[in-house]
Amino acid sequence: MINYYFTKEPSWNRVRSKLILTMKLTFLMVMIACLNVSAKVFSQEKLSFDMKNMELSRALKLIEKQSSFRFVYSPTEGPFNKQISVKVNKAPITDILDQLLEGTSLVYAIEGDNLVTISSKGKLLKDITVTGIVTDAAGLPLPGVSVSVKGVKGLGAMTDGTGKFSLKVPDNAILVFSFVSYETQEVAAVAGSTMRIQLKESNNNLDEIVVQAYGTTTKRKTTSAISTLDMKNVAPLPVQSINDAVAGRLAGIIVTTTSGAPGTKSVISIRGGGTPLFVIDNIIRSSNDFSNLNPNDIQDYSVLKDAAATALYGVAAANGVIVVTTKKGTEGSTNINYSYNQIFSQPTLFPTKVSSYEQLKAINDVYVAEGIQPPTKPEDLEGFRLGTDLIKYPNTDWRKVGMKDFAPEMRHDLSLSSGGKVTKYYASVSYYDQGTILRTDKNFNRRTTYRLNTTSNFDNLNLTVTTNLDGFVENNSQPGVSYGNLYSHIQNKQPRQQAYNEFGLPSNNTVDNPAVELHPQSGYIRNLSRVFNGNLGVEYAAHFLEGLKFKFNGVYNMYNSIGKSWNALAPSYANGSTTPIYANPPSLTSSSGEGKSITLQGYVTYNKTFGDHSVDFLGVYEQQQFYSSSLSGQRTAYQILFDQLLAGPTLNQSVGGSEGESARSAYLGRLNYTYKSKYSAELSVRRDGSDLFVPGKQWGTFYAVSAGYSISEENFMKGLKDKHIFDYLKFRGSYGVTGNSDGVGRFLYIPGYGISSVGWVIDGKAVQGTSEPGSLPSVNYSWQTIKSRNFGFDFASLDNHLNGSAEYYYTRTTGFVVGDPKFSQTLGIGLPPINFAEGANRKEGYEFNLSWNNSVGKLNYKVGLNFTRFNTLTERNTEDQATLQNPFTRGSGVANDFLRTGYYNAGFYTDYSQLLSGARIINANNVTAGDLRYQDTNGDGQINGSDNRRIGTNTMPRSNYGITVDLDYKGFFFTTVIQGAGNRDRYIGDVVQGASGQTLLTYDFQTDYWRPDNTDALFPRQVSTPSVNGSQNYQISDFWLIQSKYLRLKYLQLGYDFKHSLLKKSAFQQLRVFASGTNLLTSAKSQKYFIDPESETNNYGYPVQRTISFGISAGF
Questions:
Q1: Is the pTM of this model over 0.90?
Q2: Gene3D superfamilies under this entry (predicted)?
Q3: For site-directed labelling of 269, which of 81, 90, 345, 653 has its Cα 20 to 30 A away?
Q4: Is the Cβ–Cβ distance between 375 and 367 less than 8 Å?
Q5: Is beta strand 215-218 parallel, antiparallel or unpaired with respect to 209-212?
Q6: Tens digit of each residue's pLDDT (9 = 90 or more) over 875-887
C-alpha cells in the first residue's frame, strides 16, 4: 500500500471519497455519543460491575470512570481502604452503594447533577452553593482558573470568560484556586455572598504550559530549545500581521519588514534559516495562512529551535517551527470583546530633492570643469532660479504629485466566548483595511478573517470532540505598474521634469509620469484570495488504563485565488493641448488558481506518574495529500478600454496552466522520562516518506535525543536556593539528525521532456519541434542530512525575579542533491542528480535572554533583553568553470557567506603621483583627482576581474537584539520594544550612487561630492557621463558598501483601562483606550542615504512605514 502510494499519483476523487466517508463515520459516532448522553440524562442509569477484593476508594473511582456519578468524601473519615467484593448486573446506583457501604459507618446522599457525598454517620456534610469572581492584581477577570475542593477528588469548576464561578461543595470546604503563572490560593468556602478572589502573579513559571510538537509540556520537563511568547501585551498591538508583533521579543527570532506596501507581510526567520514551518492547532499551515492569523485569536505561541524540538515535524522543519494554539471557549456566561484601531502611516524616510536650479547649476559646473560647453544657457538657468514660468522652467515636487501625507488604515476585532457543561465555543471575526500612501483611493489591501472553535466533552464516554473552522478573504488592489515601480518613479523623477501641462492635465513630456500612472483611468493589478480550513478532532481517554488516550484529527484545507492585471495608461497631454494622447495599447492578463489538501492524523498518548517517575509517550501516524491547479490567459493590443479577455484581439494571445498532486506520510514517536523533576531525557523518532525520491529510497528515519539536569534540585544546592542565588538552574543538551528535501525536483529518476517551440528546416521543409529531452535521470540520490547540536541552560535567581536562558547551537548540512555543472557544457545536457558528498553548509551561533519582573507598590513592571548571534559558512559547493578561475569568488551563488564580489577601494585619487604609479582599469583614461582608486589585489599592475574579492556580509543580519519594557499602574499600561540588528551589509544602488544612466545630482545628500575644497566626501567627483573616465567610479566595490546595522523604537503603546476607576461596578470587564506607534525612531548609517535599514531594495522601492494609531477595546 505504501509503495503504491508513492509510485502512483494519488487520485483526488479517491482522496475526497475517503475524506467524506471518514467524516460521515465520525459524525455518526458523535451523534450516537450525543444520543447516549441524552438517554442517560433522562433515565435511571443502570450499572454492571464485578469487583473482587478491591479497596472501597478504588471501587468508587471505577464507578466514576464508567458512569456520570461523582463522589465527594474525605479519605481520612472512614474505612475507604477496606477490601470489598460486589457483583451487580444492571443495578441502580443506590443498590450498588448499599452493598459497598454495608458493614461500615459510612452513609451517602445523592445530590443534583449526580453528585454523591459520603461521610460517617452523623457527620454527613450539608452541601452549600458558592459563587464568586476571580481577578488578577489589577482587578481584571481571569477566565479559565481552576477551582477545586481541597482533599476531595473529582469536584471542581473553571471560571468563565468573565472570571465567575459557581460550585456546590460540602459545608466548611476549602477552595483551591490555581492558574498558570499565578500563585495558588486556598480560601474557605462562603455561601450567601459573592466571593472575590484576587490572584497574584507568580515569579516561578516552571509549571507553565509550553506548546511543543504535537502536544504540550511544562518548562520544568523541557529539554530542548523552545521559546514562548506571552500574548498579553502582543495581541493588542495594531499590526498587519502577527509576524510584525513578535519582532524584538524573542531570542533567535529575526523579523524583517522589507516593504510598507499594502498587503506585504514581514519576513520571519529562526536563527538565520529560511522560511520556518508554521503549525496552528497541531496542523501544518502555509506561511500565508499564518501571516493572516488574527493575533487576538492566539492563546499560546512557541518557537521550536533545535533538532530535539523540531524532530517530529521531520524534513519540513529544517528551518525551525513556530507553533501556536488558538483560543477555546470557557464554561459560563457569554464573554464579548471588541476592539477598534484607527491607524495613520507614512514613510520612515523620504529624501529631499534639490531644486531644478541647483541641479542644473551643478551640471553646468561639471561641464565647465571638463572643458565642455554647459548644456543649460544662462538665461534658462535664471528662469529656473526665478521659478515664475513653471511650464517652461518646471520645478516639480514629485512627492506632492504622487503621495499623500499619510496612509489610512483601520482594524475591527470582535470575539465571543461561552459554553455549557458539555459544549464550549470561541468565535471571532476581524476586518483590516490598509490604504496606500500613494495619491489614489483605488488601491488597498482588505482582509477579513474568521474563526469558530468548539469543544464538546462527553465525560461519561471519556470522549472529547473538537472542531476548528477558520479562514480569510483578502482583496488586494495596486497600480498597474505595481507599488514598487510607481513609488520609484516618484522618487527618481527629476524636479525639472514636468508633471502637468498648463491646463492641469498629465503631461506627456515625462516618461513614466506618476501623474499618468495614478490617474483613475490607469490600469491595475488585483488579486482576490480565499482560504478555508476545517479541523475535526476526536479524543478518547481509555477507562481501562489511566493516562492512555487515543485521538484522531482530520483536516481539510482549500484555497483559491483570482488575479487580474490590466496594463493600461491613462491619457497624457502635450503642452498647450487638451487632446488626449494614448501610449501603448492596453493588455490584460487573467489568472486563477486553486488547491486542496487533506491531513489525517492518528495519535496515541500515555502520561503517567509513578511516585518519583514520570513518563510521557506520544505515537502518531500522519499522511498529507495535496492538489493544486492554475490557469492564466493574456491578450494584448486592446482597441477598446474594456478589461475583459473576450474583448481583446486573438493575435498574440497566450494561455498557460499547471496541475499537480503530491503526497507525504510519516510515522513518529516521542518518549520523555523525568525523575524527581531533576533528571529528564527525551527521544524523538520520525520516519518520513516522500514521492520526491526514487522508489526504494523514499523513506528516511531521523531522530533526536535530549537530556536535562535540574541541578538546583540537588541537596547540595539547598544553601544557594535558600539565599535565592539560584532559585532554579537547569542544564540541557540535544543532538539530532533531520532529513531535508529542499531544492529537490520531482521525478528526477524518470526521463523527462520539455515542450519546445524551436523549429528546423530539413530537406527544405519546415519542421516544428514539439519536445526536447531534459536532464539525465538518476536513481542515486536521496535525503539530504542536517545534523544539529544544541547546549543551553535556564535559571531563575533573586526570588525568581531574575530569569534567563542561554543557548549554543551548531548545524551541518550535507548531501546536496545536484548535478555537477562543471561538465554540463561539454556533455550538452544537464547531468543526473546525485548526493554531492563533498558539499556542506554549516551554521553556528549563540543566543540569550534575560528578564526582570517585580512590583513597587501598585506599579508592576517587567524588563527583558534578548540577543542572537550566528554565522554561516559554505564549506564547499558545486562550481562552474568561471568561479574555479578565481578562488575568491567561489560560492558567490550561494549568497550565505558574503554579499557579493567586487574590488577593494583605496579612497580617492588626490595627486598625479597616484595616477601615474597606480594600477587602473583598462580604458579608464581620463581618471583624475576625486575619482575612486582600487587595490591591485593580485599585483599584476592592472585592475580587472582577477582582482575581485568577497565583500560584505549577507543581507540577513547576523546579530539581532531586543529590549522590552512592560508597565502597569492603577489602570495605566505601557509597553515598548526596542529592536536592533548588526553584522549586516547593504550595497547601495545606482540611483543612490548617482549613476543611473547619467550622473544626475538629484538628492540633497548627493551634494556631498568630492571637490578640491571637500576631499572628505560621501561621493566621488561629479562627471558629465560615466563614460568620461571609463565608469571608474561606478565599478562594483566596497566603496558603495554600507553597514546596515540599526537600532529602532519598534513599538510603543500607552493606554488606560477605565475599569479601574469609573466602571468598577459596571457590566464592562474592561474598557481601554490607547495610543500606539511603530518604527517611531531609528538610528542607522543607511539613513544618510535615506534608505530604511530593513528595506528590501538598494534604491528606492515602496518604503517601510512609520505608524501612529489610536484605539479602544471593550469587554463585557
A1: no
A2: 3.55.50.30, Carboxypeptidase-like, regulatory domain (2.60.40.1120), TonB-dependent receptor, plug domain (2.170.130.10)
A3: 345
A4: yes
A5: antiparallel
A6: 665 555 445 555 5
